[in-house]
Each structure stands twice: as C-alpha cells, then as structure tokens.
Amino acid sequence: MARSLQLYDELARQLAWSRDTIVLYGKPVQIPRLQAWYGDNGLDYTYSGLTLTARPWLPLLAELKHMVEVKSGVRFNAVLANLYRDGNDTVGWHSDDEPELGENPVIVSLSFGGERNFNFKHKMSGEKLTIPLKSGSLLIMAGETQRCWQHCVPRTKKAKLPRISLTFRQIKS
C-alpha cells in the first residue's frame, strides 16, 4: 500500500494534467476530472468530440506499462490517466467502444490513491455490479465487456483522498 501511495504522488507531480472539454448531447461540457494521454509515436485518441494526441512515455509510465503487460499478457501502446481530485470528480456511464480500440478491446486500469467505486451496468438487463478499487488495484476489462456493459466512477461524498487511474489501451492504426 505504501508503494502505491508513493506512486500516486509521483504520478500526480509528473503527468501533464488538463481539464478538457467534450461534446455531450451537442453541447460543450468540461470533463469533471483531470486527464493526461501518453503513448507511442503521438497516437491520437478521439471520444465525445475530443481528440487527444499522445505525449511521449515518461519513464515511470513505461515501467508501469511493462508491469501491466506482464500481468495481463497484452501489449499496450497508450494510457489515458484520470485524476479524480475529490468525490465530485467523476466519469459517467459509458463504454470504451471507439473504433480505434478495435473489437473487444482489452483495457487495464491501475488505481492509485483514494478508494473509489467502479460500477458496471449491463446494457440489456440493467444488472449492476460495484467493485471498490483501492490503491494498487488492477482491473482488467476484456472480451465482450465494452460491447455488453457500461461502466462509471460515480460521484460520492465518501471519497477521502484523490485518486489516479491509469487505463492502458491498444490503439489500432
């Protein structure tokens, strides 16, 4: 736990955080969290009308990417980092189903800092599942997860500490 909190501090300091604007129901909306996009050769990633161009890998991110690749058996070429500053920062219900992720993408999320709930909701049945992600947690979304389920990090008053999630992805060219 101590190492994951140390990594939180390093990531919070080293990453180039920004608060971007997306298009939601035809209107520009500021994202309710900070984010940073890193990857190979300036890879672009587009969602909700926002295109991010990857910054080069930082040594710490490259080290974490290697660890995630060993654990998951999957190679990644990009990471979307999210910083939830408090319980008001959130990400709403969505699926990571952008064309550049390919069919049935594998996305691995690595969490640092405060604990937050990660919720799933089945697209057809509405079944819900909540997974509390503590500092150091590794979550793998694979197979038909993005096709069949949505996920979110809900707003909460219980969040005591900020949280960083690193979501490793394979962008198809």
Which structural class fits the helix and strand makeup?
alpha+beta
**Mean pLDDT across all amino acids:** 95
**How many strands?**
13
* Oligomerization status of the protein chains: single chain
Largest sheet: 5 strands, antiparallel
Highest CATH level, the class: Mainly Beta
Approximately what portion of the residues adopt beta-strand conformation?
A: 35-45%
* Proportion of residues in helical segments: 10-25%
What would the CATH topology be? Answer: Jelly Rolls
CATH architecture: Sandwich
Question: Low-confidence runs (pLDDT<50, min 5 residues)?
Answer: none
Strand adjacency order, main sheet: 3-6-13-8-11
CATH homology-level superfamily: Alpha-ketoglutarate-dependent dioxygenase AlkB-like
Tell me the radius of gyration.
Answer: 15 Å
Please outline the helices and strands.
Elements: H1 2-14, E1 21-24, E2 27-30, E3 34-39, E4 44-47, E5 50-53, H2 59-72, E6 78-84, E7 91-94, E8 107-113, E9 116-122, E10 128-133, E11 138-141, H3 145-148, E12 149-153, E13 163-169
Antiparallel strand pairs: 1-2, 3-6, 4-5, 6-13, 7-12, 8-11, 8-13, 9-10, 9-12
